[in-house]
Specification:
By secondary structure, the chain is α/β, with parallel strands linked by helices. It has 14 helices and 12 strands. The strands form 2 sheets. An 8-stranded mixed beta sheet has the order 5-2-1-6-7-8-11-12, sandwiched between helices. The longest helix has 21 residues. Bound molecules: NADPH dihydro-nicotinamide-adenine-dinucleotide phosphate (NDP) and ketopantoate. GO terms for molecular function: 2-dehydropantoate 2-reductase activity; NADP binding.
């Protein structure tokens, strides 16, 4: 059977990580990205790095690089890896070029990207996917995976086989909505990490920042309960218990949550990268979703609402917050 062909729509950290692994395993991948980013790859090639394995370098001649969605025309699978605010536009761009029968897979954070893609691409199968680990562009042309983890998607045998062959750990799930709600609980830390200005490991090592996350997660769990949503359990700790664990003193937290601190020194939230580059963040699809859900059920989510405002402010006027400053700010909002 011929190998399926892929396109990556939104060739940034996640798109280059997924697409790069597929290229390394011999799959055809068309990378669709911004002219600047594609120029870097055209010049330097793409390096896939982790702190546990030697890096893999793909020379420029192995990369099919494009800046327009027409490059996705030959793909059997289109992996959508733009930030949430760009999904609608990316889907509209893609619609006239998508091959009949092509499957679209959203590997994005947030709750609504698969639905946005389905609405814009009628007649195509759109699968929800989830990336549990961090990938940063540690230097131009290098995407670095900073922690272990298994990708998740809705069932598709050919996709699953290709990812496995490419060395991308992947798990098939039939409860992706619950998975996405669980991932959103983790992504409530993106804003806290971005405002801390610290690598994830250092930020999560500090109780005051973890308490900020616990406040956000408690509000989210209350909103989920009101909405009848039961988030999936993605790690050793059940979602309902996580806020208690986050509030433990540092030494105890390090022992109880050792697995969640298996993060290398480079890892930062994807929102930190956005603030660094002066780009719009995904805050409306993260804290914004919790505020909207809480409001729809007659509840407040003041800590999430305050973070929403602080991140919007940081988009135009960057500032960093110490853990105690941020915790005091979020508590004062309640
Ligand atoms: N990075 C991470 O560690 C993780 C990220 N995620 C999620 O994965 C998704 C992707 O994140 P990430 O890879 O970090 O994002 P990036 O910003 O690194 O990559 C997306 C790239 O796509 C470009 N882009 C946007 N729209 C288009 C378009 N229509 N055509 C071509 N290129 C386009 C963006 O350019 P521009 O900026 O100019 O719009 C950007 O360069 C997000 O939903 C994120 O939350 C999930 C888990 C971990
Ligand atoms: C992996 C994680 C939770 C944190 O880096 C993330 O999803 C992100 O940065 O967007």
């Amino acid at each position: 059977m011929p190998k399926p062909r892929f396109a990556v729509l939104g060739a940034g950290s996640i798109g280059c990580h997924l697409g790069g692994h597929l290229v390394a395993a011999g799959y055809d991948v068309a990378f669709v990205g911004r002219p600047g980013a594609m120029g870097v790859l055209r010049e330097r090639g793409l390096t896939l790095s982790t702190s546990v394995r030697p890096p893999v370098h793909l020379t420029p001649d192995r990369l099919v690089l494009a800046t327009g969605p027409e490059a996705a025309a030959g793909a059997d699978y289109v992996l959508v890896t733009v930030k949430s605010a760009g999904t609608e536009a990316a889907a509209q761009d893609l619609a006239p070029h998508l091959a009949p029968g092509a499957v679209v897979v959203s590997f994005q954070n947030g709750l609504h990207n698969p639905a946005t893609l389905r609405a814009a691409l009628p007649g195509h199968t759109v699968l929800a996917g989830m990336v549990p680990y961090n990938v940063v562009q540690s230097e131009p042309g290098t995407v670095h995976q900073g922690m272990p983890g298994r990708l998740m998607t809705e069932p598709d045998d050919m996709l699953f086989a290709a990812f496995r062959e490419a060395g991308l750990a992947i798990e098939v799930r039939t409860d992706m909505s619950e998975v996405q709600h669980a991932k959103l609980l983790l992504n409530l830390n993106n804003a806290i990490n971005a405002l801390s200005g610290l690598p994830l490991r250092d930020q999560l090592g500090q109780r005051a920042y973890r308490r900020c996350l616990a406040l956000c997660q408690r509000e989210a769990l209350a909103a989920y309960r009101a909405a009848g949503v039961a988030p999936a359990r993605l790690g050793p700790t059940a979602p309902a218990v996580t806020p208690y664990v986050l509030g433990l003193p540092d030494a105890l937290f390090r022992r109880v949550a050792a697995a969640s601190l298996r993060i290398d020194a480079h890892a930062r939230s994807s929102m930190w990268e956005d603030l660094q580059r002066g780009r719009r963040t995904e805050i409306d699809s993260l804290q914004g979703e919790i505020v909207a859900l809480a409001t729809a059920h007659g509840r407040g989510a003041p800590a999430n609402e305050r973070l929403l405002t602080l991140v919007h402010e940081a988009e135009s006027a960057p500032r960093t917050w110490t853990g105690p400053q941020l915790y005091a700010e979020l508590r004062a909002a309640r």
